[in-house]
Amino acid sequence: MAPTKKKKGTATALKGPKRSGPGSGPKKKKSRKTEDNPAASGSQAGDERKDEGDEDSGSDQESDSGPYCLCRGPDNHRFMIACDKCEDWFHGECIGMDKYTGENLVQRYICPNCSDGKRYVTRYKKMCSLESCNLPSRLYDPQNPSIFCSQEHCQAWWEHLIKTLPRNKVSSLDNLTRMEFVGLLDPLPRIPGQKPSSNWKLGDTPFDIEPDFWQKVDLKVVLTQEERDILETSAAERYSKGEEISFRKKMLQIIEMGLKQREAAIANGTLPKDVCGYDTRLDTVGATAQFIAFAKSPEGEAILSAGRFEPPVRTSLHLTSVEPDATKGVMCVKKKCKTHQMWGAILTKNVKHLIRVLASEAKEHLDAETRLKENAAGRYLRSQLENNIVTRFDSTDDDEDSDEEVKRTDKRDNAVNDVEMG
Fold first, then answer.
1. What is the residue-wise DSSP string for 294-321?
2. Residue 100 sits in which domain range?
3. 285-307: per-residue pLDDT in tens?
4. Termini Cα distance of the chain
5. Is residue 404 part of a domain?
6. In this structure, what is the dihedral angle of CA atoms 37, 38, 43, 44, given to the nearest 10 degrees?
7. Residue 259 lies in a domain
8. Is the pLDDT at 53 greater than 50, yes or no?
9. Where does the record place Low complexity bias (predicted)?
10. Are 280 and 314 in contact (CB under 8 A)?
11. Is 286 within the bounds of a domain?
């Protein structure tokens, strides 16, 4: 078959490969010039200039030919996923991940090269709790968080759970029927006089502690010596943290005084607008021991009670070359001061952060004390209800009484044994 004739004066430009997801696009190949056709060379020159423009714009972009992945191969239009640490791309086939999982269930992907098994690991989204569903749950939905992907699957899960329960009592075992279980889930009526939709409801908390319980009982009876020591130590630590928080709040007052002093000096024209304005009396802010000593001194108490700084005795461009006065102070009047740059915001932020940390630690102590006291109260109420008696045998003044108790116990046990043998 004869080859097809080309129309005179035209040329065919070679097309580059198509662009794919991970790469931003390959460089286009230049078309060859036809030396034997002068008319075609003119037309091809225009195409060549166009290709050169495309080549220049994509010269700094990576080609789709790779290398990518662990195999260091090209894209080849296969499913690929990017590592969130090294930002390299990996074929799903090479890392054992299908396209659906990569696009829907992966929260953060870390490649095998970057994974350390601790901090940098691949994170997956929580899947729907319905066994037959492979969709991600709405656990991170701020409006309606749920361990199910939809309300329909939530309803289906509950229906399946209820179907596993018997309709009627089949034995004397303490098993719930379907009606009893649904009754437990039914919320109590909030409107006075309204009757619940079911006769079944959750009972009161076992051994419920009354509000005035600790005022009516003897602590030595309810709490052991070890528990009393723990509570005493924890309360002392809470008090110490509370004292430290109060001093931190006084630090904020001192910082506010320094800011007001700078603003007043700028307002009355004593200092220019862009001056530093740092006062050496702020040096103790952030240093707990030094500030407590300053706050308890007569000079510190006078400053805190007055709510303002006395005017500084002098100003200086170099505070490091002068001895600061704890009561009078020296103000820095340097412009664009790098040493005290944004001193007001930084000091305030640091002190507030420390206050939050101390408050959190104090709350942890209080929560631990509450849990310990609740457990001790529940143990005491349970022992009162069960009427249990614990006899101690130790080296105290009541040794004789203890021996008498042991003898009575031995006689009772021997009598029981005689009856059983008879």
1. HHHSHHHHHHHHHTSPPPPSEEES-GGG
2. 80-124
3. 888 888 888 888 888 888 888 88
4. 122
5. no
6. 60
7. yes
8. no
9. 10-21
10. no
11. yes
